[in-house]
Amino acid sequence: MATIGDTLAAVEFAVESQPSSRAAVNDQLKAALLELNEGRRDAVERIWDLIADDLYGLALWRTGSAADAEDAVQEVFLRLSSTPAKLGSVRNPRAYLLRMTHNAAVDALRRRESPMPEILPALVTTDDTEARIDGRRASRLLLELPVAQREVVFLRHFAALSFREIGEICNIPTFTAASRHRLAIRRLKGILGLES
Amino acid sequence: MSGPDDDLFRGWTPTPAPPHLKARVVSAAREKGADTQPKRLTDRLWESRALRYGWAVAATALVALNLWLPTPMENVSHRAATVAKPVGFDPVLASLMEDRLPPRTTWADQTHLMHILLGEARTVADDATTFGGTS
Predict the structure, then answer these.
(1) Which residues in chain A land under pLDDT 70?
(2) Cβ(B8)–Cβ(A188) under 8 Å?
(3) What is the ipTM score, two decimals?
(4) Do A86 and B11 lie within an 8 Å CB cutoff?
(5) Contact A11, A166 (CB under 8 A)
(6) Percentages helix, strand, coil for chain B, rounded to the nearest 5?
(7) pLDDT digits (tens, 9 = 90+) for B15-33
(8) Could you tell me if B7 and A115 are in contact, meaning their C-beta atoms sit under 8 angstroms apart?
(9) How many angstroms away from the CA of A129 is the closest CA of chain B?
(10) Cβ distance A139 to A122 under 8 Å?
(11) Which of A17, A84, A130 sits opposite B11 (nearest CB)?
(12) Any idea what DSSP says for residue B72?
C-alpha cells in the first residue's frame, strides 16, 4: 500500500514536470506588472488575459457563487491598479495573485447574506469525449466537499500548483494542503465508486 | 497536469471568466489607476523594504563603530598635550627676566627659558582648573 509520502512524491513530480509553461506565465506577469507600475494602464488587459480564468475559477470554487466570484476578481484587479508598486518585487506573481483572490473570496464569503446556490457552476466540458463524469453531477459532488478542500483540489488539478504553493496561498502548512487534497480526492472517489 | 488522480476530472475544465466581466473589470481598474497619482521618488524609496533595512543597518553600524572604536586623541595625555602647546614671545615676561639674567645670555637661551616658564605656568593653571583650585 502506498504511503502518504509516496503519493505526495508522485503528485509533486507530476507538477514539477510542467515548470516551463508556469515559468513563462510568471515571466509575462512580472513584465506586465512592471509596466503597470510604470503607469501603463493597458497592462491590466494583458494581466487579465494571462490569469483571469485561474483567478475566477479559484474564486468560484471558493465562494460557490458566480456573483461573489466576479466581485472577488474585480476587487483583486482594483487593488492591483491602486498599488502596483508593491508587486514589483514579487517572485511568484501567479501565486501572489491567487492568494489575493483567495483573500478576496474569503471576504466575500464573510459578507454573504444569501445561501449558497444549489449547483455550483464549477466545470464545463471540453471537447474530450472521455469525460468520466458529467459536469452537472461533478459540480454537485464538488458542493459536497468542504470549501477548504474544494479550493485545494482546484489549485492542485487546474492551477497545477505544488502543495507548498497551495499552502502559501491558503495560509496553511504544506502538509495540511496535501492532507486536504488527499481527503477530498478520496471522498470524491468514494462517492463515484472509483475507490480501488 | 498529469497526476495519478487526473482521471477524475478528465474532459472537464473549470468555468472560465465570463466575457462581460473582462470589460467591466478592465475599465474599472483603469479608472482606479487614473485616480491614483503616481508616487514621488521619496515615497517610493520610503516604501522600499530593502532600502529601509539598509538604512537601519547602516545607522546601527555607525553607532556601534562610534562606541567601539577609540578616538584618535584618547591615548595622548592631557599634560603632554598641554606642554606641547606652542608658546609665543611674551614681552612682559621678557622685561621681568631682563634684570635677573646674566649679561651675556644669548637670545636663544632667553627664548628657551621663556618657553619653559610659560609651559610650567600654563600647566599649573590647567591643574588648578582641573582640580578645582581657585588660589
Answers:
(1) 1-20, 84-88, 114-136, 194-196
(2) yes
(3) 0.73
(4) no
(5) no
(6) 65, 0, 35
(7) 888 889 988 988 888 887 6
(8) no
(9) 7
(10) yes
(11) A130
(12) T
Chain B nearest C-alpha distance from A172 (Å): 22
How many residues appear in chain A? Answer: 196
Which grid coordinates belong to A103? 483573500
B56-111: pLDDT as tens digits:
999 999 999 988 887 765 555 555 555 444 455 677 777 777 777 777 777 778 77
| A113 lies within 8 A of chain B by CB | no
3-state secondary structure chain A: CCCHHHHHHHHHHHHHCCHHHHHHHHHHHHHHHHHHHCCCCCHHHHHHHHHHHHHHHHHHHHHCCHHHHHHHHHHHHHHHHHCHHHHCCCCCHHHHHHHHHHHHHHHHHHHCCCCCCCCCCCEEECCCCCCCCCHHHHHHHHHHCCHHHHHHHHHHHCCCCCHHHHHHHHCCCHHHHHHHHHHHHHHHHHHHCCCC
